[in-house]
Every structure is written in C-alpha cells, then in structure tokens.
Design brief:
Blueprint: E1 10-16, H1 22-35, E2 40-44, H2 51-54, H3 59-64, H4 82-89, E3 91-92, E4 98-101, H5 114-125, E5 133-137, H6 143-146, E6 157-162, H7 166-182, E7 186-194, H8 197-209, E8 213-219, H9 222-229, H10 240-261
Parallel strand pairs: 1-5, 1-6, 2-4, 2-5, 6-7, 7-8
Antiparallel strand pairs: 3-4
The protein binds adenosine-5'-diphosphate and magnesium ion.
Length: about 260
C-alpha cells in the first residue's frame, strides 16, 4: 500500500442492509488506513456495538469503551472540542484506530438512539483536525440517513456494503438517493461474501445499472462464518485474497479522495 500522508480529513460512513458485513468492512478499512500510518478514528453507532472486536479488542474491552454523551454539540458554539471528546471517550485498539462508541442500549425500553446520532453528526461537522480518517460503522437501516439532518450529513463518502442479492443492491440504490439529498458527495459500493465469479459479475452488473461505483469485492470466507459461531469476528486481514480486495477498495477511495480535494 502507498503512503498518503498528504491526504487528510477523509470522513467515511459504512452503511448497508443488516448482516451484509458493515462492521467487518468498517474494521478492515479502519485497520488498513491505520497501517498506512494514518490517525484513524472509528465510530461504532450500532446499538449492539461490536466494531471493537473487529479491531482486535476483547469482548470485555469492547464493552468497557465509554459511550459518548448524547446530543452533545461539538466545536465552536458547543460545549466541548472534538479533540477533547475523542481524548476522553476514545480507546486505542490493537489494530491502531481509536474507537468511539456512540450508542448502547443497555436496558429494554431505554428510549431512542437519536441523542447518540446527534453527537456523531456534530462530531463529523466539526472536522477532527488532527485526524486523517474518521470512519462511522452505521447501524442497519436508512433511518439515520433520512432523519432530518442525517447522522452522516457531513460525511464525504458513503461506503455501501452489499451482498450478492437484489435486495441489498436496492438498499444501495436507496442509500445513494438519500446521499444526494443530504449532500454527501460520493457513494461507492463494496461487494461482500462473494462465493464465485457469478456473484462478482452480479455486483458489477447490478451496481452499474444503479450507477454506483463498485470499489471492490471481498470473498465469502467459510472460516469466518465458523469462527463467528465461536465468538471470533471478521475476515482475516492478513489473507492474501482479503488484502488484494482491500487494496482495490482503498485505491478506489484514494481516487475518490483526490476528486474531493481537486
Ligand atoms: N466475507 C465474509 N465471509 C463470511 N462471513 C462474513 C463475511 N463478512 C461478514 N461475515 C459474517 O456475516 C455476519 C454479519 O457481519 P457484520 O460485519 O457483523 O455485518 P453488519 O455489521 O452489516 O451487521 C457476521 O457473522 C460476519 O462474521
Ligand atoms: Mg454491524
């Protein structure tokens, strides 16, 4: 991978249907950017947070990450600077990125998650100056894209994770439409769980019909499914197949970033 230290301030939202692999892809991307020597902040907005597991934390350490305060206005005009919020609530992970946990439902009937989303929105708006890549692992569903204001309104790029199903590509298409409404400049897709050439061709054709750029395709890994049942999460970031797919995704994102800064 090439060094891109001069390219700073990229804000990515990882979105898609439930179970497609958002957390897996968010973990791999965050890890890959950190490997380039970049300062990465990874934000978990899933009410069942497990991005920490994908970044090498134990379950106990993942659950111990303090949850961001709700409905905080960050930056000028707010109560706390973004850097202070990250310093206070962020936790380092073995993979390199600093992990923030935005939402946790710890009790039944604990109410909606809007306050947590509002804090993330404000954090993204207040550009984390010393952070190279801010990456948000979104919970499933389009609600937080369509919500007035939108959690990811200040993101530069949405990475829509898809499986090789019509439904997940339709979700990608709806997501791309909402991104335009929110003024998010770029949307790319990552095909996940590709079992064969047919799946890869499906991603290429179905996404091109929807005019969504396919950034890369990650293979289905039987071992991940097996390991997941024993509590291990994620694709092996060292596997050559995963690395080459990730390199392709990062190359696409580099081009997107050049477009954004050009
Ligand atoms: N490429 C893959 N091959 C096999 N299993 C995968 C792959 N990507 C994700 N998974 C599995 O699919 C399930 C959902 O993945 P996850 O990343 O948690 O999705 P999401 O965050 O979209 O809900 C998990 O059990 C995960 O281990
Ligand atoms: Mg998830």
């Amino acid at each position: 991978m090439t060094a891109v230290a001069e390219r700073v301030g990229l804000k990515l939202g990882v979105v898609g249907k439930g179970g497609v692999g958002k957390t897996t892809v968010a973990g791999l991307l965050a890890r890959a950017y950190a490997e380039r020597g970049l300062h990465v902040v990874a934000i978990d907005t899933d009410s069942n947070p497990n991005l920490g597991l994908s970044l090498g934390l134990s379950l106990t350490d993942t659950e111990a990450v303090p949850v961001l305060p709700r409905s905080v206005v960050v930056g000028s005009g707010g109560t706390i600077a973004a850097a202070d919020l990250v310093a206070e609530y962020g936790r380092p992970t073995p993979a390199g990125p600093v992990l923030l946990s935005a939402i946790k439902i710890s009790a039944a009937g604990a109410g909606c998650t809007c306050g947590g989303h509002a804090t993330v929105r404000s954090l993204l708006a207040d550009a984390l100056d010393d952070v190279d890549v801010t990456l948000v692992d979104m919970e499933a569903g389009l609600e937080h894209l369509s919500r007035s204001g939108g959690t990811l309104a200040h993101a530069d790029v949405l990475v829509v994770v898809c499986e090789a199903t019509r439904k997940s590509v339709l979700t990608a298409a709806r997501t791309a439409a909402l991104a335009i409404e929110l003024g998010i400049p770029e949307v790319v897709a990552v095909g996940n769980k590709a079992r064969n050439g047919e799946d890869v061709a499906f991603f290429r054709d179905a996404l091109s019909t929807e005019r969504i750029q396919l950034a890369g395709t990650l293979p289905y890994d039987e071992q991940v499914a097996a390991a997941d049942r024993t509590g291990v999460v994620g694709l092996d970031p060292m596997s050559p197949e995963v690395r080459s797919a990730l390199d392709e995704v990062l190359t696409t994102l580099d081009a997107v970033q050049s477009r954004l800064s050009g």
